[in-house]
Structures are given as structure tokens and as C-alpha cells.
Design a protein that fits this description.
Length: 151
């Protein structure tokens, strides 16, 4: 009976020690949007009413495009999609033929978010970006509607 109690106690101590070690060996946390992406924090701090326009610049293999949204409903929707973005892991992948820049223009300032492919460009670093697909889909639809409306 004593042997079973000693074995159980030893197993329990091993589990506790393993859990403590695992806690210490967690991989480094991914950068938070708050600390690593100050432009996004500036965009999040804006109210929809403060944004006069959102300027969209795109570049692909087919060329460059520039679009400006001044409609308050479009501004609010694009702003909300940008506020939902978050950074993932840092990457060293650069994309030369799929760029997107969104500039949020107010009476006092302009703040830009830059992307290459599916990565946010923050300073000289690139990060995987959560929720970017939804933003890009929305912008594609808006831009196509703008182009068709102008024809």
C-alpha cells in the first residue's frame, strides 16, 4: 500500500512540475496590435464623424489605382473593418505585386495602414493579419461599384 501511495505521490509531483515547466516555456507572445501597430491604434481612436475621407491606393501586376470614399456610410463600414484587424506572427515575406494603402484623413491629420498581399507592413516589418480578407473583399466590391457607377 505504501508503494502505491509513493508512486501516486511521485506521479502527482511530476505532473505539477511538468505544468510549471510548460508555463515557463511558452513561446513568446505574438505582438499585440496595441504595441506593434501604432497606426492601427490611431485609426481605432478616430470617430467615424472625424474622418473626412478614406483614400485607397492599390497596386497590382495590372497597375495602380486610387479611390476616395467620402460617403459617411462607406467611411463607417470601412473604418469598422479596419478596427477589427489584428496582427499575427511576424514574417519575412514581402510581396511586390499586391499592395494596398488606406489613408484615413481628418481635418488635423492623416493616418495610413499599409499592406502587401495578406501582410500588414508596420515600419520595416511585416505581419500576418487577421481579418484582412474581409476588408479586402469589401473594398474590391466598393471599388467595382464605383467604377461601374462612373461609366
Amino acid at each position: 500500500m505504501k508503494k502505491i501511495a509513493v508512486l501516486l505521490l511521485t506521479a502527482l509531483l511530476a505532473l505539477v512540475a511538468g505544468a510549471a515547466t510548460a508555463e515557463k516555456e511558452k513561446p513568446a507572445a505574438l505582438p499585440s496590435a496595441e504595441g506593434a501597430w501604432p497606426e492601427l491604434e490611431s485609426v481605432r481612436a478616430l470617430s467615424d464623424d472625424d474622418i473626412q475621407r478614406i483614400e485607397i491606393a492599390t497596386y497590382t501586376e495590372g497597375g495602380a489605382g486610387r479611390f476616395v470614399f467620402t460617403d459617411s456610410a462607406a467611411i463607417a463600414e470601412i473604418h469598422a473593418l479596419c478596427c477589427a484587424l489584428s496582427l499575427g506572427a511576424e514574417t519575412n515575406i514581402g510581396v511586390a505585386d499586391d499592395g494596398l494603402t488606406l489613408a484615413f484623413v481628418t481635418a488635423e491629420s492623416e493616418t495610413a495602414l499599409r499592406f502587401e498581399g495578406r501582410y500588414a507592413v508596420v515600419g520595416e516589418k511585416r505581419y500576418e493579419t487577421e481579418q484582412l480578407g474581409a476588408l479586402k473583399k469589401d473594398l474590391r466590391e466598393r471599388i467595382q461599384n464605383e467604377i461601374f457607377a462612373s461609366e
